[in-house]
């Protein structure tokens, strides 16, 4: 398997794999998939699914269309943009099977870069790839420009902070492969990953098989520092493109929902509130779990902790890219102190696990290293690697 892919699209094309193989073959499978998507779209991201009938929806990078089917079932009129033509036949078949072909306004083979800006849409989605493109910020702004007044945009991204655990899984696999003389992207690596993480993966509600997760995350060349994103980077982009924060998944910023409806934030106030609040959620983003009542303050971090996390993410990314040596990877300074002081049990558990992984890194024996990683409990921690952000364009009424 080559790791020379110039883009994520290349990676999928060369490896002939469907990164998100979603089963819709039985009514139960469709119902289960639709329930997850409704929860995401409506429950987390604030998209009014009951009002989508006849609305223009644009989805970039829709893969074989299984998510778009759920929007089509709500009556949306879909423009689907998917440059990987290998999946177009399945996409058309999926729509045909559900009698939804009439809801397809267009299926385009263009990439998001080349898609024309002459139309406006009520909902624009770019899920699972935008962060891998070199001009990701410009493309996020393009999504804002494609929104009709009152329209909603959705972007997903690999979070630099929420992905700390995934980065450590990648780190542990890379080191285990190095010690065993196995190629990082070889079949042997898949077997090592199975040994380290397979059982725990089987315990979560994953939609895809272990091998797809391994290929799309643990060894994916596009899971590297330059492809990670954060709210601190994204919100200013959305703001300068004239859109306003609506929601996220997980729903990190839900305070406003608990306020009196007449207590309306000033224009731009939602973006500003999130930029101010996100460091207060850092512990939960890292662990992927809410803090224990009374220990919420443990998860709030100062800028020096954030800087330590950024440094560590870059070091792991460089090491697993073969750019820097293992000595670059260290848990130290204000970040190590902050983690060591955690009293919230989830954050303290994460701190202990990361310490165990870092202490194991210098081991020279492959078996001893794998045993230490397994004993540290990394496999059962998940964090919040993957986030969604929804935003809306002013409705132009005032
Ligand atoms: C990880 S898959 C995600 C599929 C689906 N959106 C989801 O989230 O389940 C990423 C998709 O983005 C597509 N993609 C990659 N580069 C793209 C680009 N420049 N413009 C539009 N789509 C792209 C890939 O072909 C692939 O189908």
Description of the structure:
- This protein starts with 7 loop residues before the first helix and ends in a 5-residue tail after the last strand.
- The protein is globular, with a radius of gyration of 21 Å.
- The chain is an alpha/beta fold and 398 residues long.
- Helix 5 (136-145) packs across helix 9, helix 6 (164-180) runs parallel beside helix 12 (303-320) and helix 7 crosses helix 8 (210-218).
- The chain has a 7-stranded mixed sheet with strand order 3-2-1-4-5-7-6, sandwiched between helices.
- It has helices at 8-15, 27-44, 66-73, 88-97, 136-145, 164-180, 187-202, 210-218, 231-240, 269-277, 282-287, 303-320, 333-340, 345-360, 366-376; strands spanning 56-60, 77-81, 104-108, 121-126, 147-158, 243-249, 386-393.
- The model has no long low-confidence stretch (mean pLDDT 93).
- It is built from 15 helices and 7 strands.
- The chain folds into 2 domains: 8-158, Vaccinia Virus protein VP39 (Rossmann fold, 3-Layer(aba) Sandwich), CATH 3.40.50.150; 164-226 and 298-380, no CATH class.
- The structure holds S-adenosylmethionine.
- Residues 8-9, 12, 19-20, 60-63, 67, 81-84, 111-113, 127-129, 133 line the site of S-adenosylmethionine (SAM).
Task: For the record, give the distance between the C-alpha atoms at the N and C termini, rounded to a whole number.
Answer: 55 Å
Hetero groups in this structure are: S-adenosylmethionine
Please state the oligomeric state of the protein chains shown: single chain
Shape-level CATH architecture of the largest domain? 3-Layer(aba) Sandwich
Please identify the structural class as seen in this structure: alpha/beta
Q: Please state roughly what percent of the residues sit in beta strands, choosing from under 5%, 5-15%, 15-25%, 25-35%, 35-45% or over 45%.
A: 5-15%
The biggest beta sheet is recorded as: 7 strands, mixed
């Amino acid at each position: 398997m080559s790791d020379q892919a110039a883009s994520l699209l290349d990676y999928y094309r060369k490896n002939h794999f469907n990164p998100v193989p979603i089963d819709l073959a039985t009514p139960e499978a469709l119902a289960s998939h639709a329930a997850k998507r409704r929860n995401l779209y409506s429950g987390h991201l604030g998209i009014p699914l009951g009002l989508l009938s006849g609305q223009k929806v644009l989805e970039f990078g829709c893969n074989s269309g299984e998510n778009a089917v759920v929007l089509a079932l709500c009556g949306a009129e879909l423009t689907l943009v998917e440059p990987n033509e290998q999946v177009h036949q399945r996409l058309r078949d999926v729509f045909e099977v559900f009698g939804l072909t009439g809801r397809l306004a267009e299926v385009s083979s263009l990439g998001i870069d080349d898609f024309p800006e002459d139309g406006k849409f009520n909902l624009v989605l770019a899920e699972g790839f935008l962060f891998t493109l070199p001009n990701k910020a410009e493309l996020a702004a393009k999504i804002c420009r494609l929104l009709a007044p009152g329209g909603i945009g959705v972007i997903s991204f690999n979070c630099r902070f929420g992905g700390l655990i995934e980065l450590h899984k990648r780190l542990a696999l890379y080191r285990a492969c190095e010690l065993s003389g196995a190629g990082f992207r070889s079949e042997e690596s898949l077997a090592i990953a199975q040994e380290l993480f397979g059982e725990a993966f089987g315990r979560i509600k994953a939609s895809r098989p272990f091998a797809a997760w391994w290929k799309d995350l643990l060894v994916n060349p596009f899971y590297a520092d330059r492809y990670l994103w954060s709210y601190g980077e994204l919100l200013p982009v959305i703001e300068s493109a004239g859109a306003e924060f609506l929601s996220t998944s997980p729903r990190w910023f839900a305070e406003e929902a608990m306020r009196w409806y007449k207590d309306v934030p000033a224009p731009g106030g939602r973006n500003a509130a999130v930029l101010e609040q996100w460091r207060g959620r850092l512990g939960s983003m890292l662990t992927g779990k809410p803090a224990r009542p009374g220990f919420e303050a443990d998860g709030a971090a100062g800028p020096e902790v954030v800087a330590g996390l950024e440094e560590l993410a870059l070091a792991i990314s460089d090491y697993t890219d073969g750019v820097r040596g293992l000595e670059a990877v260290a848990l130290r300074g204000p970040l190590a102190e902050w983690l060591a002081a955690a009293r919230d049990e989830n954050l303290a558990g994460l701190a202990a696990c990361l310490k165990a992984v870092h202490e194991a890194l210098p081991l020279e024996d492959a078996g001893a290293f794998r045993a230490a990683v397994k004993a540290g409990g990394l496999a059962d921690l998940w964090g919040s690697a993957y986030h969604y952000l929804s935003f809306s364009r002013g409705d132009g009424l005032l």
